[in-house]
Amino acid sequence: MSEWPLTESFPSSSGTVRWNRLGPADGRPLVLLHGTPFSSYVWRAVARSLARDHRVFVWDMPGYGRSEKYAGQDVSLAAQGRVFHELLGHWGLAEPLVVAHDFGGAVALRAHLLHGAGYRALALVDPVALAPWGSPFFRLVRDHAEVFEKLPPALHRALVGEYIASTGGPGLRPTVVDRLVEPWLGESGQPAFYRQIAQADQRYTDEIQDRYSGISVPTLICWGEDDAWIPVAKGRELAGLVPGARWEPIAHAGHLVQEDAPAELTAALLDFLGRVS
């Protein structure tokens, strides 16, 4: 995708990570984390806006987007949390601003709570954080991944496209769906899609859920009010568990708030980040 280049690479413990940096070299460092089954592509509009005043780091997690995919790869939440901690060290970032969506929210939380990653502030956008999680479709595929992996390519493409399009909200255009489906196609992409679902396990959030009350960094929790994957009630519940968390529901947005309401999300992030000295 030439319109969203990831020109740098990092040899992480779970495979080569593709990443890029936007914005002024002297800007406050800010890292964006994507969710599943997405890639950093979903952050493109928000990242470019934030990069006016911040040094923005974007990356595709191992097994996702343009990062490395291979048989037997560990792409679990546990692995991704370790990789994010490794990346912060590689980038030399001691206390960046962190903005994380969906599965990326759990990755950021695990890196902070289990691996000691320091953040100046944390913004979570419709994160996977509280049990129970996983839609009926997600659970069905997880329990029968070896069967779904054998689907003919055309049926696989249609399934992934329909799944991504089910996030709720008005902003997910067909061309964007195509961009998000593309990394999951072909000899490496198709098995990688089912691999990451097969390795999704609620125990990785269960391990940290009782630690949310110990989060002391400034925290913002944004949520698309029309999220069809994780109900907005989960966001309110999470906001009540994190001391001092700021709650920001976003109207007319589904799970992919970045696509449904990029201006509103960017405004909420800039307001929050502007209050963090």
What this model shows, in words?
With 277 residues, this protein is an alpha/beta fold. Helices cover 41% and strands 17% of the residues. It has helices at 44-50, 77-91, 103-115, 136-143, 145-148, 153-164, 174-181, 186-198, 203-209, 232-241, 257-260, 262-274, and strands at residues 8-12, 15-22, 28-33, 54-60, 97-101, 121-125, 219-224, 246-250. It has an eight-stranded mixed sheet with strand order 1-2-4-3-5-6-7-8, with helices on both faces. A hairpin with a 2-residue loop joins β1 (8-12) and β2 (15-22). α2 packs across α3 (103-115) and α6 packs across α7. The longest helix has 15 residues, at 77-91.
Based on Cα principal axes, name the global outline: globular
Q: Give the biggest sheet.
A: 8 strands, mixed
Q: What is the string of helix and strand elements?
A: EEEHEHEHEHHHHHHEHEHH
Number of strands: 8
Topology:
Layout: E1 8-12, E2 15-22, E3 28-33, H1 44-50, E4 54-60, H2 77-91, E5 97-101, H3 103-115, E6 121-125, H4 136-143, H5 145-148, H6 153-164, H7 174-181, H8 186-198, H9 203-209, E7 219-224, H10 232-241, E8 246-250, H11 257-260, H12 262-274
Parallel strand pairs: 3-4, 3-5, 5-6, 6-7, 7-8
Antiparallel strand pairs: 1-2, 2-4
Helix pairs in contact: 1-12, 2-3, 6-7
Organism: Streptomyces lienomycini
Domain AB hydrolase-1: 29-262
Keywords: Hydrolase
Which short descriptors sum up this protein?
alpha/beta, eight-stranded mixed sheet, 12 helices, 8 strands, hydrolase, Epox_hydrolase-like, Alpha/beta fold hydrolase, hydrolase activity
Entry summary:
The protein is built from twelve helices and eight strands. The chain is of the alpha/beta class and 277 residues long. α2 (77-91) packs across α3.
